[in-house]
Amino acid sequence: MNTRPILDSSSGPFALSASFNADSSCFSVALETGFCVFSSRTGDLKCAREVGGGIGSAEMLGTTRYIALVGGGKQPKFPQNKVQIWNDATQVVSTSLEFKTPIQRVRLSQSHLIVVLLNNVGIYKMKSPPDKVADYETVNNPFGLCSLGRNVVAFPGRTPGQVKLFDLTTGNVSIIPAHDSPLRALALNQRGDMVATASEQGTLIRLWSFPSCTKVAEFRRGVDPAVVFSLAFSPSGSMLAVTSDKSTLHIFELPSPVTALKSDPDPKTHKWGILSKVPLLPRQFSDIYSSAATKFQLGDEPVGWGPQSTSATLNAGIPGVPGGRPTKGLVGWLNDYTILVVGAGQDARWETFIVGVDDQGKKVVVREGWKKYLE
């Protein structure tokens, strides 16, 4: 018998979505009443704003006073087809952009604003009002997949599994046929010369170079399909963190920019040992697995509002919220050994993990602390 409560934001705080700023030093949380900003290092509240209605997503511009807001939840403060640039110094909307269809996600930097619709990505220069640079059709993108780097932005292309990269400096466009099935997650590294991708199958993580668009590495998260929630490069680009609905955080060691991973696995360190060298066995016996993994907390959620939705092409759920479901397993790095995992929902959680080496010289990842950040 299921005794979990139904979704009811009146019973207490309910985080609709969560998002890190560019350097993951803070994370913003959208609520049914407004939004909050928290310190990533401690999980402590930095500011809270009630705006008189629901916010579906809130995206911070660095640590400055500007936050991009999209209405959402049961009683949205703003229409879902408008981006509101909130000036927190004056606590008013300084400018806004209106679209014909609901906004799935917003990304912003000091120089650019990216607006993701279900079948379109708009690229703007950060001005008042924003100045449109380019506009691209995409395959259905209900999760608002988009990664904004210093000089490049990555988002789904016009066919399932395809990644499009737009060079913000030159205006050049590159296309990577990354997967056969629709994308579920993608991320750029800080330098903007690597992009990581996962499809809705969730078994393989692929690493691509930019601007050459060649595949540098391929990693196996697992054998069973899974919903990959988030991908995030460490600041130095030496590791990739991956979370999924298996409630597992994986750490993959990445090749240097000038080398690729060895095609021949080392039986001494490989998950399957000597079996990795047997040529007639299925490929999962020789694939590269994570060098360290641990569990993170998904949090208890009402039936139907958890992470069960796997499709990257269907859109349903909470209005104004990327993917229509509360954010889960969002990954960020404070530095090259400290990982953050943040989740929204009725049971909203913040966790920190430390990457290190054990007595045998093997890489490990252990949880350092956690809290329910809305309590």
Automatic annotation (TrEMBL):
* One Pfam family this sequence matches: PROPPIN
Is Thylakoid among this UniProt entry's keywords?
Answer: no
Q: Does the keyword Repeat apply?
A: yes
Record keywords:
Repeat, WD repeat
Q: How does it sit in the membrane?
A: Peripheral membrane protein
The protein's location, in the record's own words, is:
Vacuole membrane
Family matches, as SUPFAM superfamilies: WD40 repeat-like (SSF50978)
What GO terms fall under cellular component here?
Answer: vacuolar membrane
Gene3D superfamilies xrefs: YVTN repeat-like/Quinoprotein amine dehydrogenase (2.130.10.10)
Chief location of this protein within or outside the cell: membrane
InterPro entries under this entry? PROPPIN, WD40/YVTN_repeat-like_dom_sf, WD40_repeat_dom_sf, WD40_rpt
Note the coiled coil stretches, chain numbering: none
Family annotation (PANTHER family): WD-REPEAT PROTEIN INTERACTING WITH PHOSPHOINOSIDES WIPI -RELATED (PTHR11227)
Membership in a protein family = Belongs to the WD repeat PROPPIN family.
- What's the protein name? WD40 repeat-like protein
In which organism is this protein found?
A: Melanomma pulvis-pyrius CBS 109.77
